[in-house]
Design brief:
By secondary structure, the protein is mainly alpha-helical. The protein contains 33 helices and three strands. The protein has a three-stranded antiparallel sheet.
């Protein structure tokens, strides 16, 4: 009875019996039910004996029963029938994987693994579902290499398996194969509608891998699918970064298609950037003029127009627009800044400074550095101190900004804000110290007075405090260390200065300026022979790095003098004296070079030449007591030498009187 049922179910195969024979002829059967070994893939009929036919009938019947049980949710019983079908046709790849799938559903990982080892080698059609199933089975056995290989086959099959792609992506995360993960996400995301979490992960992966081109393509796909402008905006920004301006311009046209946003500040900025990138500045100007005509109250358009006119050197038009922008709240600082530049070009430094101060009043952080540079050139110390007092004082506005970021809970943004704030404060303290030191140097420069020197000492003490504050905030940068150490030297804190200079030599061994600076002061102070020798060696190191540096040569000449090598010292100083005219300006700002030449010539008894150099020292510093003293000594020495040269030769001694009458 069971056999009749099986034969009835198997009728679709159209068996034709041959009477009086043990052989039957079977027409082409479904490949998923007949063994690849027992049935050749041919359009011709295949002969089977009755035992083989019975085996296939049993396999087919069990298979159909298993399908019916699966439909009813009887998975355990279905697995038994499917196994029976597979055992009846053990070379059938399709039946093997059908059993494997039910085992995997049941969680029988060990049994599934054993069967997978056989099933993967069976002949028959190989599908993405089968590869995915093998991937799952091997991953459950922690055989990640095999699992990854089969998942890759599933994903790369013509019938791409979305479930396999997702499972593959999870495994790729575990093994940190981010390049392959990017590829899988690129296939998966468009097919599942760009879910946000997976999209964000893909964006993060592409950003870390610096694959801007792929990210631009992704943003374009997301925009096409969702219509969200933020993705089109991000795509345009990336295209700018890659200098793909033609494509960016195409995206901008789409971006501006919505009339509500066609002429907003971002759209205008994009449009200008695209035309500038394409070297089409004139088209950009014409476009801006047309937009401004439509929106005369949109000052962001006027701002871009003024910038382009400035770039194209259309000064008269630019000035009109900058003056108009100076009346606005948002763009006044930028306008005053540009007006300051134009005034300086015209030679009106006073007006230029007024504009720059107005720009600073509007936006202190943006224009503080430029204003301080101008004050430094003018030696306008009191004005600079006022700016720096504000910069180093507590700022309620910054406190409010910090509080808002803290409330948002964005710790990374808070960290960036606090770092920027700390560095800005450190720079302000460093600038303050530098201005104080410059002021002190001016007071110490000849001719000076005891009162000026006392004031200079007080300024250097204050500079020391600011340098210390900057160091605590910003660490040991080379400029800060040098400023701090050089100020200590002039503040008579020599041993403390040496400690700081040694730190510079360790951290920044190529700092020739620092080596020459300390070397010169050790030589000049002449505290001990060992320090003079050390100073000389430091100067040699500086000269080795910068052989033509005139200041270093002056230091070397003075070191040779201290070491008693007067002829070598004079030869070195003559190189300094022969420097090109552009470098001789230092001779008229400082007495040291002439004083060095004078002392060296004096040591070589070149008195007239030494006298001339001391006189030049007095011309710069009329109150220089040492120069006055040495001039008197040299004049006396020269006079005595001249008297010796003028005195006639002595005549032979006369004979004594004999007492005789002539």
């Amino acid at each position: 009875m069971r056999l009749k049922l099986v034969i009835a179910l198997f009728a679709s195969i159209a068996l034709v019996a041959c009477s009086g024979s043990k052989q039957v002829v079977v027409q082409q059967a479904p490949a998923n039910l007949l063994s690849a070994d027992s049935v050749k893939k041919s359009r011709y009929p295949v002969k089977m004996d009755s035992a083989e036919l019975l085996r296939l009938e049993i396999a087919h019947g069990s298979y159909l029963r298993a399908l019916a049980l699966q439909n009813q949710g009887e998975y355990n019983l279905a697995e038994q029938f499917m196994m029976h079908a597979y055992e009846s046709d053990p070379e059938n790849r399709y039946l093997a994987f059908s059993v494997l799938e039910l085992m995997e559903m049941r969680g029988a990982s060990a049994e599934a693994f054993a069967l997978a080892e056989k099933a993967k080698n069976l002949k028959g059609k190989q599908t993405s579902n089968q590869y995915a199933l093998l991937g799952r089975v091997y991953s459950e056995q922690s055989n990640l290499d095999s699992a990854l290989a089969y998942y890759k086959k599933a994903v790369d099959s013509s019938d791409q398996n979305l479930r396999a792609a997702y499972e593959y992506s999870l495994l790729l995360e575990i093994v940190h194969n981010y390049d392959e993960l990017i590829r899988v996400y690129a296939m998966l995301l468009p097919q599942i509608g760009f879910p946000q979490s997976m999209l964000d992960r893909q964006i993060s992966l592409l950003a870390n891998a610096k694959k801007d081109s792929l990210m631009a393509d992704l943003f374009g796909e997301v925009y096409e699918a969702r219509g969200e402008r933020i993705y089109l905006e991000n795509q345009i920004r990336l295209l700018f970064g890659m200098k793909r301006f033609e494509e960016a311009l195409s995206g901008i046209e789409e971006f501006r298609a919505d009339t509500a946003f066609a002429d907003d500040s971002l759209s205008v900025a994009f449009l200008v950037a695209a035309y500038v990138g394409l070297n089409q500045d004139t088209i950009a100007v014409d476009s801006l003029k047309a937009i401004y005509k439509r929106h005369p109250d949109n000052y962001h358009v006027l701002m871009n127009l003024a910038l382009l006119e400035t770039k194209l050197e259309k000064k008269s038009q630019a000035l009109v627009h900058w003056n108009r922008l100076a009346t606005t709240d948002k763009y006044a600082a930028s306008a005053f800044g540009m007006l300051s530049v134009y005034a300086l070009e015209d030679g009106d430094s006073a007006k230029s400074l007024q504009y720059l101060e107005k720009a600073y009043d509007k936006e202190p952080l943006a224009y503080r550095s430029a204003l301080l540079v101008r004050y430094a050139k003018m030696r306008a110390y009191q004005k600079a101190y006022k700016v720096l007092e504000t910069a180093t004082a507590p700022n309620p506005k910054l406190d409010s900004m910090r509080a808002k970021i803290q409330e948002s809970g964005n710790l990374e943004e808070l960290r960036k804000f606090e770092t920027a704030e700390t560095m800005d404060m450190a720079n302000a303290h460093y600038s303050y110290g530098t201005f104080l030191q410059m002021n002190a140097e001016d007071l110490e420069r000849a001719p000076t007075t005891p009162e000026k020197l006392d004031s200079a000492k007080a300024l250097r003490k204050l500079a020391d405090d600011h340098y210390m504050a900057a160091s605590k905030m910003a660490g040991d940068t080379p400029n800060l260390l040098f400023a701090y150490a050089s100020n200590l030297l002039m503040y008579d804190q020599v041993d403390s200065a040496i400690v700081v200079f040694k730190k510079i030599f360790v951290k920044y061994p190529q700092d020739a300026t620092a080596k020459n600076h300390l070397g010169y002061y050790l030589v000049d102070m002449n505290r001990s022979p060992d320090e003079v020798k050390w100073g000389n060696s430091l100067i040699d190191e500086a000269l080795k790095m910068e052989p033509s540096n005139v200041a270093y040569k002056d230091s070397k000449g003075w070191a040779l003098y201290r070491l008693g090598k007067y002829k070598e010292a004079l030869a070195m100083m003559e190189q300094v004296e022969a420097a090109e005219d552009s470098l001789k300006e230092m001779f008229y700002q400082d007495t040291s070079i002439y004083a060095h030449l004078a002392a060296i010539c004096q040591a070589l008894s070149l008195n007239a030449r030494a006298l001339d150099y001391y006189q030049k020292v007095l011309n710069i510093d009329p109150k220089n007591e040492n120069a006055k003293k040495q001039i008197e000594i040299l004049k006396q020495a020269i006079k005595e030498a001249e008297n010796v040269q003028k005195e006639p030769a002595k005549a032979p001694a006369a004979e004594k009187d004999s007492g005789k009458a002539p």
